[in-house]
Design goal:
Layout: E1 8-14, H1 15-24, E2 27-29, H2 31-39, E3 43-53, H3 63-71, E4 75-80, E5 82-85, E6 91-94, H4 98-108, E7 114-118, H5 125-133, E8 137-142, H6 153-158, E9 161-164, H7 165-172, E10 173-175
Parallel strand pairs: 1-3, 1-7, 3-4, 7-8, 8-9
Antiparallel strand pairs: 2-10, 5-6
Length: 183
């Protein structure tokens, strides 16, 4: 990855997408090391983590991570997930944070030189193009190492740089913790 040490960088993490990507390649992200890794390369203006939360659950497995991130250098942006029943009567949960991430990136763009976007979602292609028109450089972080790539081809082509999570895992990854199966 090419980051100029004179640049101001901003990390924008699509939490659900990074979680799915890291699970697909069999690692957990060490978020403390992630801040250290990017903070050592350039001036880190902001590290934002976006995720939707299911509010009615007594316990959310993501809550400890959200709380830790919030107290350890990340700006956590959440919203309640929406629950609905599909046409077949199945309970579904939807929690898309794309608009919040895009709006925040565009609003913050006068203050950073380089956006590091942790997502492979092709919906962000227009955001990357808009930031580039403003003179910003954009690195997209996802993976091509899975049997089905976790990154949209359009997004990868639009980005100035691509960083594979599998390569990043060498410095910020750790083996997945195997949790006991409940019966």
């Amino acid at each position: 990855m090419t980051v100029d040490p004179r640049e101001k960088i901003a990390l924008f993490i699509d939490g659900a997408n990074l979680y799915a990507t890291s699970k697909a390649i069999g690692i957990d992200i060490d978020y403390r090391k992630l801040l250290t890794e990017f903070g050592s390369k350039a001036y880190m203006l902001r590290a934002n983590y976006y995720t939707a939360l299911v509010e009615d659950q007594e316990y959310s497995s993501i809550r400890p991570l959200i709380d830790w991130l919030d107290y350890n250098g990340y700006t956590v942006v959440t919203k309640p997930a929406k629950e609905f029943t599909d046409a077949l009567g199945r309970r579904k949960i939807k929690g898309n944070m794309d608009i919040e991430l895009c709006v925040d990136a565009l609003e913050l763009s006068p203050f950073f030189d380089h956006l590091i976007l942790f997502s492979g979602d092709g919906d962000f292609t227009a955001l990357v193009a808009a930031l580039q028109r403003k003179g910003k450089r954009v690195t997209v972080v996802s993976t091509l190492t899975t049997s089905t790539p976790m990154i949209s081809d359009d997004l990868r082509r639009q980005a100035d740089f691509f960083l594979d999570v599998a390569d990043l895992a060498k410095t910020v990854g750790r083996p997945q913790v195997q949790r006991p199966v409940e019966v």
